[in-house]
Amino acid sequence: MQEIMQKLKDMQECYWLNPHLSNDVPSALHSKGITPEDIEDARARLNRFATLLKILFQETRATNGIIESPLRCINDFRDALNAQISGDVYIKLDSHLPISGSIKARGGIYEVLWYAEKLLLEQGRLRVDEDYAKILEHREFLGKYKIAVGSTGNLGLSIGIMSSKLGFKVEVHMSNDAKEWKKAMLKSHGCNVITYDSDYGRAVEEGRRSAESDEFCYFIDDENSKNLFLGYSVAGKRLKAQLESLDIIISDERPLYVYLPCGVGGGPGGVAYGLKSVFGANVKCFFAEPTHSPCMFLGLLSGKHDAISVSDIGLDNKTAADGLAVGRASKLVGHVMENLIDGCFSISDSNMYKFLALMAKSEDIKLEPSALAGVNGLIFSKNLGNTHKNAIHLLWATGGNMVPDSQMREYIKEGERYL
Ligand SMILES: *Cc1c(COP(=O)(O)O)cnc(C)c1O
Which residues on adjacent β-strands are paired with residue 218? Predict the structure, then answer.
């Protein structure tokens, strides 16, 4: 452990296999106050909202109001990496999720829907067996309420867009990492965007404070939210169906290795929890973080979870991967996942850029830097215990589709310097 800790301090790329991984996945899934039944509840809720989403967002028509992303084989990228990786490599394109073009379209949107439903049910304005398209009649009522959130960009975008469509007032507290185009897009949706010249932790703090003094304000707490977590976890069962449609059956002879870019942890933690509930020990899940912001890696390695921050080991939390620029991990996720996650690894900014350019070149898939963090899972795959020639590797590509063309050209240009 000392050796790995030193590498983290030195900002060297490194990996860690979790010694606390449980060999009894079903009981580990039940041990921390969240259960697989909660995922079913979230799944049913998203299904109830499908008719409404189909009306509100054209781009969800093809999937009947279900917000889901494509799965693609990227063996050309694998071959371009030239790293002797055994097994097929797939990519989960959350970068292309409808509505907000990032993994936050799972959890962020889910929690807004959960809150709207709760208010409407409590007030007798809705029944769960009704057509939820009816909610559009209650926009004025929902407009009495405000939703607040702290974000490095993408969570704000998802929550802002969804909330404003339902009529809520929205307040997004943005860290200094947040890109101008994300703020501009939110303003165009009528959201109140407040920017701080400090990092994500402060943005969350301000959002929390603003909600404390206002009983009509609901704060979506990215550091502790069970709802966000469950919104992400629904991905597990849906991925199984997608793999099966490609005749891929995950088993102990054909394990699934999943590499998940991790910021505060809710997105990758929720997805990993959902995957473990579906595939058990046959799925191996790893968190991927920038060498400047390995907060979850540090929290799990030290066992201190949210009681330690990357600044405590001298790191600056400055990375081009804005979605991952988080210095302190989620308390909830650290605890729920400590016996379920297979391991962690880190990646430098220059390698994220390099893989971004390589992905654009070999597969014509355009991603934001954060979304490439998982690629080191392929590079480290033998160290991560993957010696199966039948294994399926899955890069969870967490964002990119909404990046403006000019910004994307700059990203690719930067990445080509390292090729
Ligand atoms: C938010 C985000 C992540 C990680 O999700 P967390 O819940 O913060 O861990 C990864 N990639 C992108 C692009 C993101 O926006």
Answer: 147
